[in-house]
Amino acid sequence: MTRTSTKIIGVFSIALLSAIATAQNWSRPYETGLSEAKRGNWVAAREAFKEAIGHRGQDSDKASQVGLSITDRRPWRDGAPYSPNFAAAYCAFKAAANAPDVTTRRDFLALAIAEFKALIENRQESAESLLFLAAALSAAERSQEASQVQERLMSADQTKLFKVDREVIDFDDMRVLSSVLQGTGGVDTVGMSLPSADNPFGIVPALDYKFALIVGVSDGGHAFATADVDLIRDTLARHAGYAEHRITALKNPTQSEFQSATAALAESLPEGATVLVYFTGPARQTTEGRDEVGLSGGSWILKTDLYSKFVSRGASIFSFFQVDRRRESDGRVFGTDLPQAGRIVQCMGAAPGELATSVNYEDRMHGTYTAGFVQTLARMRNNRVAIGEFAWAVFDVVRKGGAGGAQTPTLPIYIGLGSTSRF
Questions:
Q1: Strand partners, 348
Q2: What is d(CA 43, CA 108) in angstroms, rounded to the nearest whole number?
Q3: pLDDT confidence bin for 157, thresholds 50/70/90
């Protein structure tokens, strides 16, 4: 072997050993980060991923090589992407979710938001970064920005998005991610768990065009009606993407209070708004065949008054009624009086002739339909629920005994909307 050959081999060996040492420098803390994440030690995991970034700064969706010798060279972790920046941002997101106080939660949310945005601006836009950014923005009460990010995710070509290492993502979030990325590759919804100190079960990103009107009247109706208001309100905020300040909840309102509240809600609606209306209380049909619902003080209003102001604003309205549906002697029954205009879905919690029953749910008496409604939303955890799919799911829960089994919810009636319309 010549001196030149020996020198070349020596230089090559030094370079190889240097590359191997560098690989160990970034791979070891990265793998430590994954281990800490699996234990739920999000702050420690984040520190480990930051150490990996110090040795190898850029994320890559290409396979990396590791090994102690030429013969031992192999794809690192079976060809998984190298995503320390994404992982560090995700750990900040999860650290916020488990923060012991409001200040720590706010600080970690700010880090997560800034780092997810940096990835996107660095042309490393992934479905995961968009998803968690939307959730973090929503948790930081920046719902308009969250909506914009969600729309960006929904319109993205999934085949062209950056690929990240998903091993850092915990099981519950992976389940949500799987529901986001449908089998066809299309993005259908965004629902992301982010527990907080006052909401240990997490929230779904609120969308700024979603509003709700919940009315519970126990005067002249069922005693559980007002308790249902609280349960529905909390469920919509926690599991369905309705910001609390966009939910109008009325317990035993007088006609004047009802009119004032609905007028204010209608005035706040943006173009293209979605409004969910949930009524639980007394109901009847007049001799003229008009559906009416009862308010406090013995007053009655037309069912259509629940959403007429929203119709005039061009909103899509999804209405749900947990009421008694007694048949009159001439066959009349509440629910057969249908709107003639607007974009409205109408769902009934009981079949014609059935009464609204109650069930013990979460240590309180609630309407059977309400219990089925909230259980279904809690399972779906979705801020763009397809109404047809949802109605069938509620039907199954109620009829199979998950919410008492004593009623038969109806499938939706559509006016200007369809089964794939989302609320």
A1: 321
A2: 10
A3: confident
Please tell me whether residue 186 adopts helix, strand or coil conformation.
Answer: coil
Tell me the residue type at 259.
Answer: Q
Residues 394/409, Cβ–Cβ less than 8 Å: yes
- CA-closest candidate to residue 116, choices 127, 104, 130: 130
Share of the chain above pLDDT 70, in %: 84
Spatial distance between the Cα atoms of 420 and 70, rounded to a whole number of angstroms: 56
d(CA 393, CA 409): 10
In the sheet that holds 300-302, the strands lie side by side as: 283-285, 291-294, 300-302
Mean pLDDT in residue range 287-301? 93
pLDDT tens for 165-199 read 999 988 767 766 665 554 333 333 333 444 444 44
Domains of the chain: 3-79 (no CATH), 210-415 (3.40.50.1460)
Q: What are the Cα distances from residue 136, in Å, to 1, 59, 150?
A: 62, 21, 12
CA distance 100 to 345: 42
pLDDT computed for residue 379 by the predictor? 83
- 142 CB-near residues (< 8 Å, 6+ apart): none
**Looking at residues 48-70, what average pLDDT do you find?**
86
CB 97 within 8 A of CB 37: no
Q: By C-alpha distance, which of 118, 147, 119 is closest to 135?
A: 147
Identify the helix (H) or strand (E) that includes residue 9: helix 3-38
CA dist 47 and 34 (Å) reads 11
- Return the structure tokens found at 22: 């560098």
Residue with tokens 């030690």: 41
Tokens of 93: 């997101």
Q: Do strands 274-280 and 316-322 pair parallel, antiparallel, or not at all (unpaired)?
A: parallel
Q: What is the mean pLDDT of residues 144-151?
A: 79
Residue 173, SS3 per DSSP = helix
d(CA 390, CA 384): 11
